[in-house]
Design brief:
Elements lengths: L2 H11 L3 H8 L2 H5 L15 H20 L8 H10 L4 H4 E4 L4 E4 L8 H16 L3 H12 L16 H18 L3 E2 L4 E2 L2
Helix pairs in contact: 1-2, 1-4, 4-5, 4-9, 5-8, 5-9, 7-8, 8-9
Length: about 190
């Protein structure tokens, strides 16, 4: 599947094309693994963009379901947050697509992927001249996408968009884990 094209199509549908261009032109993002561990979700070539596509698709399906019940839901905030939520993984570990070798980068001990994703998102938002309120809403979603501090989020979700992102991320990760981990015992499969 062409995940880049599918994300471009979603971005166009939700009026986010110019917001999506910077990340969807980044070759590292397009080929990077979704994890540095072979036993973790979305490991391997294009794992990160596949996970991002899954999260964005699930999130936007939830938007379509909830939009009449909760008309204040903002599809641009939700899609943008889904697109950028794990972008920081490109900095977390070095991944060689040819050999699928991964190693943690030195910076990871200082800045985790969640915070790096928020930092990179803010750089792009400033470059694009996006409104502060929109940028902050997306940043909140990114910073809270693991759901709670114990799982790595600096903050808990406080908005509907943040909750939908968190749950969409969790669905994508856990469904992919079924191929790698016995979820009943949390042991890696061989």
């Amino acid at each position: 599947m062409n995940y880049r094209k599918a994300l471009v199509d979603l971005a166009t549908k939700y009026d986010c094309h110019s917001i999506a261009v910077p990340i969807l032109r980044d070759e590292n993002f397009l080929t990077h693994s979704g994890s540095h561990l072979k036993r973790a979700h979305h490991f391997g070539v294009e794992g990160l963009i596949r996970h991002t596509y899954e999260v964005a698709t699930i999130a936007m399906q939830q938007y379509e379901f909830f939009k009449t019940i909760h008309p204040s839901l903002n599809p641009r905030i939700l899609f943008t947050a889904a697109l950028y939520h794990d972008y920081g993984k490109v900095w977390d570990y070095d991944f060689n697509p040819d050999t699928e070798e991964c190693k943690l980068s030195d910076h990871r001990r200082k800045i985790h992927h969640i915070q790096r994703s928020a930092l990179e998102w803010n750089k792009i938002a400033i470059f694009l001249g996006l409104p502060t309120e929109f940028t902050d809403e997306v940043t909140h979603c990114i910073l809270s996408h693991h759901g709670q501090r114990e799982w790595g989020s600096p903050v808990s979700p406080l908005t509907r968009e943040a909750w939908i992102l968190h749950l969409s991320d969790n669905i994508s990760a856990r469904v992919d884990d079924c191929d790698r981990v016995d979820l009943a015992t949390l042991k890696a499969r061989k």
